[in-house]
Write a structure and sequence with these properties.
This protein is 46% helix and 12% strand. The protein is α/β, with parallel strands linked by helices. The protein has 2 domains: 345 residues, Alpha-Beta Barrel (TIM Barrel), CATH 3.20.20; 47 residues, no CATH class. Strand 3 and strand 4 form a beta hairpin. The longest helix has 28 residues. It is globular, with a radius of gyration of 24 Å. It binds D-xylulose (XUL) and cobalt (II) ion (CO). The site of D-xylulose has 10 residues, from strand 8. D-xylulose binds next to strand 8.
Length: 438
């Protein structure tokens, strides 16, 4: 029995059900383009927002009943949090979970104690995972909440803080490995700056590059086969984060020779904070060959911060899902619900309702995307738009046969006069809208 035991295990009941504690669309065994829905979506619930966030904001304290939150968190509190979390994961019927070290374990004052407490909760996790079948999508170290990280972790001006962060990542990466985690995430919570006036940007980037190389080296040393993921975010809590967006992360990986080793965990609300569409970030990651996983949520179009709301608009997500379907799904990644309740959603039931709505939303987007890809019209529209590049001129340009003068001479000699052609944007948009019918 836990705080979350009052809701019966959530099942698929179809679109006409009157039961709010049932899936209307997410039918994990439904086969979509040859693969079960559960395998397409690889849904994970996260530990931190759901169990370790009391509903506090900058103007007020916690509103949610989370009896295991306190200062310090004792082992008994961490254990009851674990019990409640796995009760919830199992009843919700999701195949994965994600966690930060300090969100799951008892409070530690020293690194030795940190190591011990993390191992204690890891043992509890291993036991609950075996009992419930819930797997670990990824683990991550919290290198941003403790005051020691106010100036950054890997990018701290103090090497002792860097060393603390290295120890935390070592312990958490090893725990993730032992728990069979499919990925390990680094979100650079405070890897950035509040003011350039007191910041040596070049030095900090070098520190961060070295840190990431050390993590990759250690991953290989211990035989971790999962993917190392960086999670881009443009700002908040810092004024500027170095992992601003996918393009910035790729430039960083290139600079430190890590493009083959590290991929990205793309979060919807981080993309929109960066002034980019979620689907843009996926397209960029695919273009650079670093697409890894997704933190699914949404922002509020009129708020300029990370509201981390549960997704509720399948049509908005469909273009992203089209890309996922084109890629035949994730390799090691999945959809992690990095989303949190509103402060007034104080009932344990609200956590279920939020996830059920969100999971049905991404399921709707998946079904629409599968139809869009099967229908092929959107793809044909794109192919036709670029068809000139399959012709002689296109091939001579991309094949490298012509230099700039050669192209210029040829264009002049042939008296080229390309006529404007429709980009068919409205048709493309209609195609998306038309297929969003689930
Ligand atoms: C913060 C955020 C984090 C990471 C994990 O904006 O998204 O929760 O996903 O550290
Ligand atoms: Co996130």
């Amino acid at each position: 029995m836990s705080l979350f035991s009052s809701v019966e295990p959530v099942r698929f009941e179809g679109p006409s059900t009157k039961n709010e504690f049932a899936y209307r669309v997410y039918d994990k065994d439904r086969v979509v383009l040859g693969k079960r829905m559960e395998e397409w979506l690889k849904v994970a619930a996260c530990y931190w927002h759901s169990f370790n966030w009391p509903g506090a904001d900058i103007f007020g304290g916690g509103t949610l009943t989370r009896p295991w939150i306190g200062t310090p968190v004792t082992q008994a509190m961490a254990d009851s949090k674990l019990e409640a979390a796995f009760d919830f994961f199992e009843r919700l019927g999701v195949p994965y979970f994600t966690f930060h070290d300090v969100d799951a374990m008892a409070t530690a004052a020293t690194l030795k104690e940190h190591d011990r407490n993390l191992k204690k909760i890891e043992a509890g996790m291993a036991q609950r995972m075996a009992a419930t079948g819930v797997k670990l999508l990824w683990g991550t170290a919290n290198l941003f909440s403790h005051p020691r990280f106010a100036g950054g972790a890997a990018t701290s001006p103090d090497p002792e803080v860097y060393a603390w962060a290295a120890a935390q990542v070592r312990y958490c990466l090893e725990a993730t490995h032992r728990l069979g985690g499919q990925n390990y995430v680094l979100w650079g919570g405070r890897e950035g700056y509040d003011s350039l006036l007191n910041t040596d940007l070049r030095r900090e980037l070098d520190q961060y590059g070295r840190f990431l190389s050390l993590v990759v080296e250690h991953k290989h040393k211990i035989g971790f086969k999962g993917t190392i993921l960086i999670e881009p975010k443009p700002f908040e809590p810092t004024k500027h984060q170095y992992d601003h967006d996918v393009a910035a992360v790729f430039a960083f990986l290139q600079r430190y020779g890590l493009t083959k080793e590290v991929k990205v965990n793309i979060e919807v609300n981080h993309a929109t904070l960066a002034g980019l569409d979620f689907e843009h970030e996926i397209a960029a990651a695919r273009a650079y060959g670093i697409f890894g996983s997704i933190d699914i949520n949404r922002g509020d179009p009129r708020n300029g911060w990370d509201t981390d709301q549960f997704p509720n608009n399948a049509q908005e997500l469909a273009p992203a899902l089209v890309q996922l379907v084109e890629d035949q799904g994730f390799s090691t990644g999945g959809f992690n619900f990095d989303a949190k309740l509103r402060r007034q959603s104080v009932d344990p039931a609200d956590l279920y309702l939020a996830h059920i709505g969100g999971i049905d939303t991404i399921s709707r987007a998946l079904l629409a995307a599968a139809d869009i890809v099967t229908d092929g019209a959107l793809n044909r529209l794109k192919q036709e738009r670029y068809q000139g590049w399959n012709g002689e001129l296109g091939k001579r340009i991309t094949g490298g046969e012509l230099n700039l003068a050669g192209i210029a001479d040829l264009a002049a000699e042939k008296n080229l006069d390309p006529a404007p052609r429709s980009g068919r944007q409205e048709l493309a948009e209609s195609l998306i809208a038309r297929h969003c019918r689930y």
